[in-house]
Specification:
The chain is mostly beta strands. It has helices at residues 132-137, 150-155, and strands at 9-11, 22-23, 30-37, 44-51, 57-65, 68-71, 73-78, 84-89, 100-106, 111-117, 121-125, 128-131, 141-148, 164-167, 171-172.
Length: 174
């Protein structure tokens, strides 16, 4: 149901952040943006959701387990030549036991962020395992996509929950 990608924390965005997200297009009043905070190896990828509509919105972004969190983000590393590589986070392996839904709830005008440690994110090209931080240092870019689905929202008891696909803006490595 979810791609395995560790989830740091779910926070209300505010003045704590030093970098404005690269926002993607608005869909049904919602948009998603990404930003990098800090420097490698302790760098964080911040994924922020923003409700620009007039109605409250809620949707499931993932699940929390006893060993970490997983979510439905699809992250892509973009090489200078345009080659794309899907990213995996190897922090969370298999999951056994209870998984608690992680729900984003946004009133109009509100934002909420999820942070993910980049040091465990890797691109798999053939037999090569390429760390995201190394790709960013080499000038690669990053983009994130998220799809909220009815079955995830139903599992998280978010009825009716927002459904659709959000795409972030693209950010360059530092």
């Amino acid at each position: 149901m979810f791609h395995r990608l560790a989830l740091g924390s779910l926070l209300l965005a505010g003045s704590l952040w030093s970098v404005e997200p690269a926002w993607g297009p608005v869909l049904s009043g919602l948009s998603m943006g990404i930003a990098l905070e800090g420097s490698a190896p302790g760098r964080l990828l911040r994924v922020t959701f923003r409700n620009q509509g007039t109605a409250p919105q809620a949707f499931v972004v993932g699940g929390k387990t006893g060993i970490g969190s997983i979510h439905g983000f699809e992250s892509v590393s973009l090489a200078p030549d345009g080659t794309e590589c899907k990213l995996l986070d190897l922090t969370v392996g298999g999951v056994a036991g209870y998984v608690e839904p992680i729900v984003v709830r946004l009133l109009p005008g509100q934002t909420q962020s999820v942070t993910i440690a980049t040091q465990k994110m890797f691109c798999m090209l053939g037999r090569q395992t390429l760390p995201l931080d190394g790709r960013l240092a080499a000038g690669h870019k990053l983009r994130v996509q998220f799809t909220a689905k009815d079955d995830s929202n139903e599992w998280g008891r978010v009825n009716p929950g927002w459904t659709g696909t959000l795409v972030s803006g693209t950010i360059a490595g530092k």
